[in-house]
Specification:
This protein is 28% helix and 21% strand. The chain is an alpha/beta fold. It comes from Nocardioides aquaticus.
């Protein structure tokens, strides 16, 4: 179909979900838990929403890899797109994270699964930049056009332009950075809340880019290959309309198609004319996730797309054993999960 729309994704099922107090200061989209609701109630409701997203994706033909997380010190682990991205040709990137309590969201078992079930040639790890105070939070900080090879990035302390340039050099993207602010002059903390790029359509809050010349350059670059651009308002961005992602799935008849996946809240904010433009190329899939959106992210933040070639099923076990041999300190099971020390001793 398209390099832009992966047909497989990674989701993290975080059983201890809560809005992260360490990110509240600069995430204007984050909200407080309703008064009187216990942490356990919030976490249980969020878990149900995570399962609903996984079920909705499977129902439209997307391959979903779900990883459970029971660690109470990782409140934002439901958003894996901030620490890992995958790229055609077998490349994986691991990113430096701004909030210290988010840095241990990076998981070896996720990387091992990718190596065992998909063709991974190289993993580029930028997380060593964290002690220097340099951050680039993955496809939250960047919105990637995998077709035209452009990395759109709103400048912020979560999207350092130096590491953006380094990433673009390593992964052959053209960097396109810009300033983006809300009506109060507050910088947009993650580019993926203000827009997304699909194969034939893009959603973008161009009005949040104050520099008129740069705004028109972004508009032109988004539409250069005939892609339709749906301009979002700041009000729609606050409803998470920009936090969508294009995937490849199937119609009820079994035909492959593009999907534009977003939250039900985001879908409700769109005007009929905007929906019509999106539906010229994509089937909209909307899932209600109000609890997760309290953390300042929505459906796109929950999805780490897999832009890698899948290994044939009939050779995956043998190739997995090769991965085990290479990674003796971190062996994996045939399904790509780490073997813990007790299991190794029992074996």
């Amino acid at each position: 179909m398209s390099a832009q729309a992966p047909s497989a994704v990674i989701l993290v099922r975080a059983s201890r979900f809560l809005p992260n107090p360490a990110t509240a200061a600069d995430n204007a989209f984050q909200a407080d838990v309703p008064p009187g609701e216990s942490d356990a109630v919030v976490a249980a409701r969020a878990l149900s929403e995570m399962d609903a997203v996984a079920d909705a994706l499977r129902a439209v033909g997307v391959r979903v890899h779900v990883f459970d997380d029971h660690d109470h010190t990782r409140p934002d682990s439901v958003f894996p797109n901030n620490w890992v991205s995958t790229h055609a040709g077998g490349a994986v990137a691991v990113f430096p994270m701004y909030a210290s309590n988010r840095r241990h969201e990076r998981r070896a078992d996720v990387l091992e699964m990718l190596k065992s079930q998909y063709r991974v040639q190289t993993i580029v790890d930028y997380s060593g930049l964290e002690p220097d105070g340099i951050f680039l939070e993955g496809t939250g900080a960047m919105v990637l056009d995998h077709v035209s090879r452009v990395a759109y990035a709103a400048r912020s302390h979560r999207a350092d332009t130096q590491v953006l340039e380094r990433f673009c050099t390593d992964f052959t993207y053209e960097p396109m950075s810009f300033d983006a602010v809300d009506a109060h002059g507050v910088p947009v903390y993650h580019t993926n809340v203000m827009g997304c790029v699909g194969t034939e359509v893009a959603l973008m809050a161009l009005g949040m880019i104050p520099d008129e010349r740069r705004r028109e350059q972004v508009r032109e670059r988004l539409s250069v290959n005939g892609r339709s651009v749906v301009e979002l308002t700041e009000e729609q961005v606050r409803e998470f309309a920009g936090n969508a992602v294009e995937l490849c799935g199937r119609t009820p008849e079994g035909r492959r198609c593009y999907l534009m996946v977003m939250s039900a809240r985001a879908r409700r904010s769109l005007r009929p004319d905007q929906v019509a433009v999106i539906e010229e190329s994509c089937r909209i899939v909307a899932v209600d996730i109000p609890t997760i959106e309290l953390a300042g992210g929505s459906v796109r933040c929950m999805i780490a797309g897999i832009h890698l070639d899948r290994r044939p099923d009939d050779v995956a076990p043998g190739l997995t054993q090769a991965v085990v041999a290479i990674n003796e300190d971190h062996p994996v099971t045939p399904d790509g999960h780490l073997v813990d020390d007790d299991a190794r001793r029992d074996a």
